[in-house]
């Protein structure tokens, strides 16, 4: 039971329906997941969010599967179950193997462990990791 | 000024010195960054952390550059400056371009935005994203 | 199933019952939500938490509806489902419209996105945003 | 020292310069803060981020000062110093008094405290806070 | 440079001065750290925060050193440098050894790692860890 | 329904079965909780995680009950339900009373509140809390 209802196709405003049509066209599927159906109660929020996501996840300098894995990693760190499940499914659909998921989880866990150690000890940044001030 | 001192080579216990020797051998460099020099005050913590990191970041099903980028993404989500700077440097050393860093940041930002929307609206997980209970 | 039981009125200690009476008087309702019923197993924790909340949420320089919206925003960022649901209900009871909720969510999402970008890039604070050292 | 340089006006690409011109026009000021000057190294990221922020922070159902205060609250919860300082400055410029900032901080602190109590005790959501399933 | 000034003794309002007098009496020291000097600009926030802290950190079912170590652990997880440094100092003053700090850090790191693994894999809670519904 | 299945004993690989045997021997119980049964799909991740946990939670400078309470506190701050429930059960099994749990929760809540106040006000660290640079 979400805060806003999970809208069915026949309950959409014209602006929300247009966004759904674009999601279907870009993703080449008729399946619209609940995230968009809940956002659809606020068409301006729906439209802006989809527009941004479409740009960010489009093919570019990074492989689409890598982008989905980064999305999963951040969603774990932020503790969002919906996002973990939906983007794990998306990453698998883009070719992520279970062995790759295992390594992703290992990196996320390890990074969280060393993040806390570095923060807890207030480790000073090495000069070697700072940009050259002459070029900044 | 860290909570524990940044130990110099001549201040190391024999156990910590042995870990440093392994870091240098595995990484093929004489440079030991401050994270390890601060951990060195607790040789057991140093040894276990390095042993885990060595296993997790070793070549496997994921590309080493991808692993470093996942590390950066999690470090941003966890808010650890030291880790962001050191692993951004490591990812660049493994070939990450500035265009790839830009896309990584875009995914981290976008994921954080949609994580909050899904959480704030308590979006229910789609059946399609759940594992098949028959095989679970 | 909570870690501590959801206490019924007849299960309360005298000290917890007195806190419940104050909650009912201040809120002008007989409804006591589960948060307080679970805290009631530790009357000192219950009493101190209610006392603080009563002071913080009382009318002051900020509108009560604005305070509830700030509460919702922080609860989303901290990932607390109970708090998101209870304070969204409270904000609606104090007049928050669905259009206002949509804008609240948009700000929470956008802030989370730019928070990660500023952190990921380690943007230096502008002089213009720092307090005047002469008056500090 | 940021991960990417703080670009000066004469170092901007034409696309970044166009975004800066729009920021100046919308904000009615010649001051461009470092966040945008650092993002400017990736004009696509700069343009999309500014475009979203402009929409989200525009006048709407919520008062602009309230939006800035929500931004500050989320930035505190996410631990972003840059964002806390820049949006506290923006909220003050839009009329936030120090008494209002004090109450904002009190709500953010209180919400974080009760968020942890509700999570730590795994308090079950009250039926009264759930949407009516008949209308969902 | 804090958002509010670090007030000197001669700049305090009478209400803030009274809180400082109580801090000195309870802690048996003349040293007032910056956290309270900054909060002093909002005497109501100062008074309520000190009153809560005094109750929470008072001797009780838990050892004062253990309370300070829990404070440090939470401050690391929340990423608050000021709080890590001040409560690490307080824990040392209450007898925490460097070996104990090392084990504290190891637990914080390990917990953060397994937290992410359990969240990333969405591990279902074992029946054995749930309260007995008959007694709830 | 977890992302990976909850493996039964007869579904384990030989390497995972060996880890389970060690868990049973160290913990002196035949009960293996779901966390390990889900990790078992990736025997390398299972083995490394158990090996680390065994070292971190072994008797040392800190009392085992204190270690479990630190684990609970961090799990609350990180928002991991599974971890909160399993380590609260473990802490109780090691002697944590309900009064001690109440104080633990009070410290976690209070620390989260003051963490946000210190971060929101950007309180500068007192000289007294910094290590002596001469010895660093």
Automatic annotation (TrEMBL), chains A, B, C, D, E, F:
One Gene Ontology MF term: peroxiredoxin activity
InterPro entries: AhpD-like, AhpD_core, CMD-like
Domain Carboxymuconolactone decarboxylase-like: 44-123
The name this protein goes by in its record: Carboxymuconolactone decarboxylase family protein
